[in-house]
Automatic annotation (TrEMBL), chains A, B:
GO terms for biological process: polyprenol biosynthetic process. It comes from Clostridium celatum DSM 1785. It comes from the Bacteria. Signal peptide: none annotated. This is Putative undecaprenyl diphosphate synthase. Pfam families: Prenyltransf (PF01255). Gene3D superfamilies: Decaprenyl diphosphate synthase-like. Keywords: Transferase.
Length: 213, 213
């Protein structure tokens, strides 16, 4: 089986899952934390070299405060849990906004936890316009485009898996995603089971990666 | 039914279609021209305001010359056919490269043909890195990002339809696609039938457009 180097994870459907389970919407996020850790462990076993989780975006922060607080806390908890594993962690997002949780500031430079061995990126208060970051370039700095990105330490993504049935990227790393294969799981993220990942990998195995050639 | 303002068309599978029909790969492209015109007419009837066709990319030009010549000619023929319709045509691509066909230079500023009424964009020798065009910005020109794009006259895309079964954007307008819903048709592009479009629109009708909010 062809294993992708880098998987992007869009863990959508937490609010719909909560409503389906008789909970308030904001209570869905914390039920997405353990699935994230479980998926990390499976990827580690499979030899995947890099994972990027879509935590929350600057657009998401326009939601009601109770939801914003809940998804922010879920991201903090998830990153703290991952820091107890063997992982090379990096949080990427706009730290200059009050929506960025100060608890995650120590993670905004990549750090090795335990034995490392797998890069794990977590997007927190991420915005695609912020990422592209045009204003910091000067005319004299004619550098390749990836140098201009806030997310320059995140590599090209081979496979993006989105839970919750929606078929869109929703601003997820537009540059690293230009050639990504995109797999959608209809189940909501809190209902994650390993078979979702295995099905996505089986499907990816059958894709020919041409990069337009 | 909710009709998208702007549809992106990725007409993939011409070479695979040719091989399945006992032809050389390069003979698939010309069989994609009439489907493109047919789809245009259907979109016009439906009141869709803008269509963008993915012609070919700078990455595609690395393919064998016989294929490159064939897809280039198919794009020239397609644009010439569309110029006989009521349409506001614009060709977007890197005109500074020898891979850009000189026959299409007159279309690189938007022009109204017939009664106009629908914008039609055609990407020819397009490259996402070329489009993002960072080097032309100076530090003093802190403009919104869409001003910096070569494709600045192409609006945000609501729905992208890709034929040929592959589930990736392949560098298609990364900025205009950040929130696009993405629908995949397994059939190859030369086998286009109206039901493909209607199925995509039915599906799109059920999507909630949240833009992250």
């Amino acid at each position: 089986m062809k294993i992708p180097n880098h998987i992007g994870i869009i863990p959508d459907g937490n609010r719909r899952w909560a409503e389906n389970n008789g909970l308030n919407k904001e209570n869905g996020y914390k039920c997405g934390i353990n699935p994230g850790l479980f998926l990390f462990k499976l990827c580690h076993e499979l030899g995947i070299k890099e994972i990027t989780y879509y935590g929350f975006t600057t657009d998401n922060t326009k939601r009601p405060k109770v939801q914003k607080d809940a998804f922010t806390q879920a991201c903090i908890d998830a990153v703290n849990l991952l820091s107890k594993e063997n992982a090379e962690l990096l949080v990427v997002g706009n730290t200059e906004s009050p929506c960025f949780p100060k608890e995650l500031l120590p993670f905004t430079e990549r750090r090795v936890f335990g034995k490392g061995g797998i890069k794990v990126n977590f997007l927190v208060n991420y915005g695609w316009e912020w990422d592209l970051n045009l204003s910091r370039l000067t005319h004299k700095q004619r550098k390749p485009i990836d140098i201009a990105l806030h997310s320059e330490d995140i590599s090209r993504i081979d496979l993006i898996i989105r839970w919750g049935g929606r078929r869109r990227l929703s601003g997820f790393l537009p540059i690293q995603s230009v050639y990504s294969d995109f797999y959608v799981v209809d189940d909501y993220w809190p209902d994650f089971i390993p078979q979702h990942l295995y099905d996505a990998l089986d499907w990816y195995s059958d894709q020919d990666v041409t990069l337009g050639g």
